Amino acid sequence: MRDTYAQPLARDAMAYVLAGGRGSRLYDLTDNRAKPAVYFGGVSRIIDFALSNAINSGIRRIGVATQYKAHSLIRHMQRAWNFMRPERNESFDILPASQRISENAWYEGTADAVYQNLDIIASHAPKYMVILAGDHIYKMDYELMLQQHVATGADVTIGCLVVKREEAKGFGVMAVDANAVITDFVEKPENPPAIPGDPEHSLASMGIYVFDTKFLFDALRRDAEDPNSSRDFGKDIIPDIVKNGKAVAHRFTDSCIRAAEEIGEYWRDVGTLDAYFEANLDLTDVVPALNMYDRDWPIWTDQVVAAPAKFVHDIEGRRGMAISSLISQDCIVSGAIARRSLLFTGVKMGSYSSVDEGVILPYCNIGRGARLKRVILDSGVRIPEGLVVGEDPVLDAKRFRRTEGGVVLINKAMIERLK
User: Fold this and answer.
1) Does 139 show up as a binding residue in the annotation?
2) I want to staple 57 with a disulfide (CB 3.0 to 4.6 A). Which of 51, 92, 142, 289 is the partner?
């Protein structure tokens, strides 16, 4: 619950989203797009969650640092996020790595991606900076984190998750005292420090940081002068503050957004194909763990102008149906059936075809009689008539990319090789 302030702290804040990463563990899905630009949830992109959290929290100045194969991401943001109005003291800056500091230097790390744009940030004169990762799925009120930051007098406040100690080995992990002051910060430790009084769990960093702007600028300038720095928040900036300043942990459970039927807090790193697949299918549950229908905390995105979804034919064996599925605009399910699947914009399913547990990205075409199970289709894929996927693991692995969890990823190049 928010405290009562004469003016929300978010009005004096700028959100800075780090969206330059490839996401190599998504393999072919990120061959031509950065991880934050990957489609999610039927209508959205991954980056829409961090940006929507900022807008819904009351932040009206936003910067997004891009780098790896950024065209798809930039095009999406230009279309979906062009409603900010300068006359209302709002701004939305897309900040590609552009060798602004040196003619041969791209963004060298997460901290450098902020440092290279200090002059642009300064032109907006924010009092606080909220640094965000652009590649996670969650709903969070950053105003509550800002309030804790101010109330504790922290130099940096770090968003954190409570995770099992074994799972914490893949995160930046915090050791804290009884007042949530961080006493140590280690990246991907073999023996993660436990939460005081809870030996089975650790506090893992979400990659969300709140700073007073002046303090952040000073820290980044010092880091830029250090020839031994890797220019990274988790490896350099944060450990230095923990050692020489005051770093405080903010638990996600204190600011996560839950609609009435959402029981627990929902945060996912969809950095692997299996995790991406399962997070999408989470949305097909009768009561999903993540509520995309919450009108009080909408996930903003590009609203495509298109016809409604259409289901045609109604005879036995050739009936257009969708069960426990999300079907987007401009889809045509023609005498076919989708079960526990997501059909993104413009998907066409031919007669007698079926998809069971599928994440079908925009403008795919599934030919007559095809049977697909536990699949991800990249955008624009045309599945040949009669193709069967998900029933023969050995054959699937030869023709496509099959994960340890039995999920099959198919892109255009793989279909071309079948011909």
Assistant:
1) no
2) 142
